[in-house]
Amino acid sequence: MHSFLRWANNRQEEIISLIQEMVNCESPSDSPIDVNRFVDLMVERTSDIATAEVLGTDGAGKHLRLTFRTGSNAQGQILGLGHSDTVWPLGTLRSMPFRRANGKLWGPGVLDMKSGLAFFIYAARLLRELDVQTRKRVVLLVVSDEEIGSRSSRALTESEARRSDCVLVLEPGAGPTGKLKTSRKGVGNYTIRVTGRAAHAGVDFAAGASAIVEAARQVEKIAGFTNLARGTTVNPGLINGGTRTNVVAAECRIGVDIRAVRMRDAEALDRKFHALRAADRRCSLEVHGGLNRPPMERSKAIQQLFGQSRKLGRKLGVKLEESATGGGSDGNFTAALGIPTLDGLGGVGEGAHAANESILIDRIADRTALLAMLLANL
Known about the structure:
The protein is an alpha+beta fold and 378 residues long. The protein folds into 2 domains: 3-184 and 296-377, Aminopeptidase; 186-293, Alpha-Beta Plaits (2-Layer Sandwich), CATH 3.30.70. It has 10 helices and 18 strands. The longest helix has 20 residues, at 110-129.
């Protein structure tokens, strides 16, 4: 057994204890006080191996930059990337408590992504205790608003990525075997506001121009932008408008989610949205929105980084596979800058954002050891 894997196996209960602490420290995106409490916990649990810089935000929870003391003459930087916020509202622990059962750890945020943060911390601790010097500086950036669009943290993430030689994203692995993620779709949202002309539906129907009817025509056209062969999906997921059934609707709004594998496809979609025109000339359209996470395209640099990881995994007796996903992460931002980015290095399990959120206990040690191997060899 490789010494890294042996160390991680021997310290597995400690890692589990840290994961339990993290899960029990609830940190919903919409509660800066609780996110900050989680950040304080991370600072406290890494004080002996890292230098912490807590960064304030406008209204959101604090972001955290940890620089680990793993290399005395480090040249360049490896960036670990994670987030402290979860989708779960405060008080979820009452109905979904942290527990250990059936070979798994359960609880809100355990998979997405508190276990990944714990793995990275213990990977750095492993290197310190085994006296393994890294060639590059090791930094972990933990942002507080990834689950709600990364508005306050995107610039910080991109700035840190530009100083880095590669980025390791601690989001969960894909599927039951924990495949790494080498491609993610870009994600965007559009809102189409339709303005019509109100009128009494019984007395003066012909004088009205229904924004709802116009929106229905637009929804059919917008749905037609989907191109499954290219991995492009366009989902009109929300629609609302009108005031009463006896009033011809003067307003209606359509909310649309888009996903695209390639940047050029996202740009083509944007042109289509802005080319929309009302079928009823008495109505008008306003189009707002666009791409908020660029695609993480499977570049040659990403392929090479995955190849290096696969070789290191073999030394641990782990067969690594890669995958593509339709969901976005902050790794989309770093990959779009051309920085080699490898995603999905966190927990292996199921149920992210769902009541069955859990990770496999028997994948804790090899995931921690893999991260340590990457930090030591990249």
